[in-house]
Amino acid sequence: MVNGLEDVIAAETVLSDVDGQAGRLIIRGHSLDELAEGSCYEDVLGLLWVELIDGCPDARGLAAGLGAARVRAFEHVRAVDRQLLALPLYDVVLSLLTRIEDGDDLATALNLVAAPAVFAPAVIRLRLGREPLPPDPMLPHAADMLRMLQGVRPSATQVEALDRYLVTASDHGLNASTFAARVIASTHAGLAAAAIGAFCALKGPLHGGAPGPVLDMLDDIEEPDRAPTWLESALANGERLMGFGHRVYRVRDPRADALKAALELLTRSGEVTVERLRLAEAVERAALELLARHKPDRRLQTNLEFYTALLLEALGFPRDAFTCVFAASRVGGWIAHAREQTLRGRLIRPQSRYVGPRAQAIA
Ligand code: ACO
Questions:
Q1: pLDDT per residue over 258-317, tens digit each?
Q2: What is the DSSP letter of 101?
Q3: First CA to last CA across the chain, in angstroms?
Q4: Which CATH architecture fits 14-60+155-349?
């Protein structure tokens, strides 16, 4: 038995190739390094969905379809009452996701992509006692998401930074949430069932729940000089350093580099302070040194979530919304994998080895 299914191949996919030894990510034939620079989220959706979703249009058609889907998603925001709003943000978004009609078609796929992008900004504003802002279907997806959050038209740099994030996190092989989506899709449940199951798998800190705690760590460390002592004591207490380590990557996580570049864009335009970036870099340096000593055989590197935390903070998302913003990106990958599984896969039904007590006669 392989604990945690490490190195087990459980699906064939044309969607993404995570090469842990080379530190490279390929999304449908394109290297992430190239995609993250010049593409918007609609481009990567087109790349992921082509031939898997009937009638999938080009990036322009997807932008228009997504705009209309954001308007439809906004209708569900009315369901948020005081009782629902008292729940953690993640739970409010989860509850709104369950209102989306299930299906296997393009309209369902677009509704599911639009949903977290609309729900998260709306719930953030409601919690602050502000009116949620209706979507502008004419705007590109990333620009509208930021406008619904901030209440003003975002700067071009902010839109570019969010697009880089949405593209970078869109798909990543058989990670825990994508695997969950494929298991659900293998029963021929619809796309909404697969995406909601995947959203639940994203919640934990070992997967999509890490970036909030990354910022808690930076807040606690406060000054670059304090990083080594703070981190050493966390490791001595048996804690994991959030934003570091990965099941597959052994040299580097290319997504961390793509997001660090996006963060540097925001630093140049004054949206991230140089002090914040310096603190993050000092923490990263100290963590990598300590982890190399702590686990010399494991080669623990910075993962996607470390710079995600700083990037989303700079764009104005509160830390308890980070998992929902992650979902706003990864949902495109979940849908593509769910369709691939339904069209080309079989029911996923592995075996377990029984290690419990032997059968006994009931007295
Ligand atoms: N800090 C300290 N120790 C670590 C870390 C870390 N960040 N990551 C792994 N280790 C240690 C483990 O404690 C373990 O030690 P042990 O063998 O003495 O028990 C050893 O390295 C191997 O760890 P595993 O849990 O087997 O590694 P796995 O491949 O399952 O874990 C994971 C990957 C979950 C990402 C892990 O590195 C981790 O917990 N990181 C911190 C949380 C985090 O950043 N999550 C976001 C991941 S990125 C994403 O999902 C989008």
A1: 999 999 999 999 988 899 999 999 999 999 999 999 999 988 999 999 999 999 999 999
A2: P
A3: 34
A4: Orthogonal Bundle (1.10)
Which structure tokens are listed for 120? 């998260």
Rg of the chain (C-alpha set) = 21
With tokens 């369902």, the residue in question is 108
Domain residue extents for the chain: 14-60+155-349
**Which residues are known to be catalytic?**
246, 305
| Predicted TM-score (pTM) of this structure | 0.95
Residue nearest to atom 4 of ligand 1 (CA): 240
Interval between CA 156 and ligand 1 midpoint (Å):
36
* 167 touches 159 (CB < 8 A): no
What's the number of CA atoms in the CB half-sphere (13 Å) around residue 362? 0
Compute, in angstroms, the gap from residue 64 CA to the centroid of ligand 1.
40
Residue with the smallest CA separation from ligand 1 atom 41 is 242
Which residues surround ligand 1 with Cβ inside 6 Å?
4, 175, 205-208, 210, 240-247, 295, 298, 300, 303-305
C-beta separation of 107 from 148 below 8 A: no
